[in-house]
Amino acid sequence: MSDPAAQAPHGEGHHTNYVKIWGILVVLLVISVLGPFLGHPVVTLFTAFGIALVKAYLVGKHFMHLSLERKWIGYLVFTMLALMLVMVGGVAPDVLKHDGLGWENRAAKQSVEQGNAAGEAAEKAGHGAPGAAPAGEHH
Amino acid sequence: MAFPRPIATTRSATGIPTGRLAVWWVIASEIVIFGGVLGSYIMHRLGHPDWHYQSAHTNTAAGAFNTLVLLTSSLFAVLAHQAAQQKDGKKAARFLVFTVLGGLTFLIVKGFEWASEIQHGYTLTSNTFWSFYYTAAGLHGFHVLAGMVIMLFVAADARHNRELQRVENIGIYWHFVDVVWIFLFPLLYIAK
Predict the structure, then answer these.
(1) How sure is the predictor about A130, in pLDDT bands with cuts at 50, 70 and 90?
(2) What is this structure's pTM?
(3) Which chain A residues have a beta carbon less than 8 Å from that of B165?
(4) Residue A6 forms part of a structural domain
């Protein structure tokens, strides 16, 4: 089945000032770098991850032309994002919690303790802590 | 030797050119791949508060510079698409080469960054934070490299005004690689 009209690259007749979008993206990048200097975790959360979402939206809409694409392409992309969230939601309790009813992740607890101890020792010594223990399996 | 033009090049059963549709399918699968890595990283990061001792040693300046480089290369990619729409293959090819140079700059900076980190003892196996760091950034770097190679082939054709629809297709892929980095940057470099 051939549809010559569909062969044209989308965005024809649609005028976007791409340099202006790039300028906005660069300003947002500068804000995301400067955010942590304010020293407030909530502000950093917003300037780092809130702005990342805005940047991704701008790139998706204006550079990838998602807004001009067929609607089901958007549905396809968001379905994949939803599947990712299902995976994260399903696994998160096991990874985020180190103990629960009838189980304890001793290796993970030990890893955090060792990591903190190594980090504190390295800070006192004036350098980093590359050798902190890795996270372990459930026991 | 001349090959016959694949039927998918000119067919559109869905209302979307088949080549572009294929790129969207690739991106759909990539979302799950990168989403899995980043989702796992976020969960482990929240479960391991001690990792901030490790993340304090990533080079924010290098990460920020590389973000600027990728954003600029994305601008070149979309300008290449615009030139292809105007049937100006030579201009499109020129912008694609600029995009490739952006990717090359990104990889060179990454190389220096990794060399410095490894010299300081932060290796793939020194801590789970660094395992995630090298896996996520390495997987992303591999996608940058793959995009650069494909883009050079597309530019070679575009220069002779051939297969100009491919300029948009590789551009969509490149912007996706840019979007992945947009999330990697705060996760690995800003969240100290």
Answers:
(1) low
(2) 0.89
(3) 7, 9
(4) no
